[in-house]
Amino acid sequence: MTDITKIERVAKLLKRERKLRLARLNDVYMKPIEGPTDRLVTSEKKDYIMLGSYSYLGLINHPEIKKAAKEAIDKYGTGAGGVRLLTGTLDLHKKLEKKIAEFKNTEDAVVYSSGYVTNEAILSSIFSKGDLIVIDRFAHASIYSGCILSKAEWTRFQHNDMEDLERILKENREKYNNIVIAVDGVYSMDGDVANMPEIIELAKKYDAFTMVDEAHAIGVLGETGKGVEEYFGLKKDDIDIKMGTLSKTIPSVGGYIAGKKELMTFLRYSSNPFIFSAALPPPSAAAALKAFEIIENEPERVKNVQNKAKEFIKGVKELGFDTLRSKDTAIIPVIIGTEVKTFRFANKMEKQGIIVPPVVYPAVPRDGGRLRCCVMATHTDEDMDRILKAFEKVGKELQII
Ligand code: PMP
Q: Per UniProt, which keywords does this protein have (predicted)?
């Protein structure tokens, strides 16, 4: 039998992985965390400050959310027992969808069992032959995946570049039936915010639809964490399709689409993951539902994450690091450079008791290796102090600052 690991692209990756492993550079990947991915974590019996968790508001270990999940297991069991369209819809799913629609100020919402498939579901079921999907070059992989699955054509504009977006819209408007502009509200590798007001203006001018992925915006952007509309002061219906995940600020799993009632009805009857993939398990749905309530009941968490992010950006910038255009979000990239240097930096941070994920090519440009720092509402002043001291020490050792 031929060896499947000899397939060129498999062999190439394995070679790269082996090189990093021998130099003990990729130890930071897939590090088993023995407990909640909170601000402090334990891994292989050592304690660390976590600077990479998506639990921006620190809800991952919230007692009321855990209680809701446990009670859901007692009431409903551990699985939903089917797909949403047939036997998998629980009253819990309905309550969660109602809550999300309320939170996002839309008529209705649909929940899927992963954020990734949510983007695939939207783009592949709504848009088809004769349509054009225009995405930001830095859009999340799941938006790319949705484009590939869709029968529509798709193209990209330069990151947050409104002139480039307008050029594409102008050149293509007459050639297609429907055009949708799909962007991330907060970009997951750069931590900057989509220029929604101008995107909406262009969409109106060229009769295009808008879609925004708020995976990293919910709980972080806007006075009360409601996301991009609140942040920019947009009108209720300025964005046609609002997508978000239940796996980041909301400490669960799953994704949602929120928007007009008719559109949600269409998705319930026509999107493959709703019809052919198992429904969100009860404890996950219950945890997500409770988390939305907690965001509303504990508004200080939103303020805290915003303040901590500002403090962190100011601190690392003063040390001399480049944080790109990250502003007002909980994702702050600290640019290191080459792949090896980035891994080295992450390893040394770990030795200083801080876990921070390195992100390298192809997720980011070749020399744009970075530490993707995620600040949490629950990081204390003492944590911040330790984190910044470690950045200073390692930055000097590796001659980055
Ligand atoms: N969109 C964005 C912007 C993301 O960052 C992610 C996850 N990293 C997803 C979608 C996919 O969400 P999930 O992990 O919940 O499947």
A: Aminotransferase, Pyridoxal phosphate, Transferase
Cα 116 to averaged position of ligand 1 atoms, centre (Å): 6
Catalytic site includes residue 188 = yes
pLDDT at position 27: 82
Q: How many CA atoms lie within 13 A of 183 on its CB side?
A: 28
- Please choose from 119, 142, 246 the residue to mutate so as to test ligand 1's pocket, defined by most ligand atoms within 8 A of CB: 142
- The model's pTM is 0.96
Q: Is the pLDDT of residue 26 over 90?
A: no
Enumerate the CATH 3.90.1150.10 domain ranges in the chain, comma separated.
21-50+299-397
> Taken in order 336, 337, 342, 344, is the CA torsion positive or negative?
negative
Location of each CATH 3.40.640.10 domain in the chain: 63-297
How far is residue 4's CA from residue 73's CA, in Å, rounded to a whole number?
41
Of 104, 242, 248, 308, which residue is the catalytic one? Answer: 248
CB 254 within 8 A of CB 339: no
Catalytic status, residue 93: no
Q: Is the peptide bond before 362 cis (omega within 30 degrees of 0)?
A: yes
Per-residue pLDDT tens digits for 126-185: 999 999 999 999 999 999 999 999 999 999 999 999 999 999 999 999 999 999 999 999
- In degrees and rounded to multiples of 5, residue 60 shows phi and psi of -60, -25
| Res 372: pLDDT | 97
The atom of ligand 1 lying closest to the CA of 246 is 15
Q: Which CATH architecture describes the domain 63-297?
A: 3-Layer(aba) Sandwich (3.40)
Residue 62 known to be catalytic: no
Quote the tokens at residue 78.
């551990």
Domain 21-50+299-397 adopts which CATH fold?
Answer: Aspartate Aminotransferase, domain 1 (3.90.1150)
pLDDT for position 20: 87
219: left (phi over 0), alpha (psi -120 to 50) or beta: left
- Torsion angle of C-alpha atoms 102, 103, 105, 110, degrees rounded to 10: -70
Residue 1 confidence (pLDDT) above 80: no
Q: How confident is the model over 238-256, as a mean pLDDT?
A: 98
Q: What is the 3-state secondary structure (H, E, C) of 49-67?
A: EECCCCCCCCCCCCHHHHH
Most confident of 194-198, 323-327, 364-368: 194-198
215 in contact with ligand 1, CB cutoff 6 A? yes
